Amino acid sequence: MALFKGTILKSIILNTHRALTAGIRYASVEVPTDDSPVEMENPFTKERRQCILCKLNITPDYKNYRLLSQFQSPYTGRIYGRHITGLCKAKQTAVEKEITKAQNCAYMPYTYKDKAFLKDPKLFDPENPVRTHRF
Amino acid sequence: MPTYELAMMLRAMPKVELKNSLLRISNAIFERGGIIRDIENLGFRPLPYKTSAHGLVHREANYFVFKIDTATTVVSDLKEEYSRDVDVVRQRVFKVTEELEHKCTLEEELLPPAYRKEVQKMIEVGKTQVNRFTHKFSYNSGLDYYPFQK
Ligand SMILES: [Zn+2]
What we know:
The structure holds two protein chains of two kinds. In chain A, 42% of the residues lie in helices and 0% in strands. Chain A is mainly α.
């Protein structure tokens, strides 16, 4: 009999405890204090990198052969690859397309860079590509 | 917006003749019901490579760009006419395309390979290509010798 009483008492105590904790949790959700955490974006995310043509909003054009010649090797007239120019895919293909157009129109030479443009500012360093290559 | 750009290289000649040949070129467009929006003069400068046209070697040229609106069927006709013109050293016709709204994807391209979409796609394709040559030669196929190296 005594044992039976004991179990009842225990269960009552346990139940009240449960109710108490539930009540506390409920209250904490309901009333936010000024010290509670605030929903916000990650302040440590880095700024989105952009290629130079996207940043300055330039669309390559075959008539602007001076700009296009900056993506050409001064030794062989070859178009530098994406790992050197640091352009995004779309802009690189656009540049390559416009260069072939300009070369076709005799605005730009095929096998060398126009010597008037040799001292133009460098947009990138061919010696330090973004991705390593085998040359 | 013009539909076509005519890039014309005209031979070195005095101004009066140049004017006449420009008139001839534009009249050819007008006769076929086209419109000229703009004529750009990119100047007289040396060609980056020598070009031979109509039995003469040219090393300099007058550069012009015509921005025109014409029917698509007329373009080949125009090209043919200019190819017969003795003053035209070189000519190209380009269709003008509208600028598309484009967002830079450099950030995604600079991610490590495992995070790049195209690489993930390649891996998926590669998974379907394993054990492609598992077909075993059956000796009862009529050939009385084994055709491969053992
Ligand atoms: Zn870009």
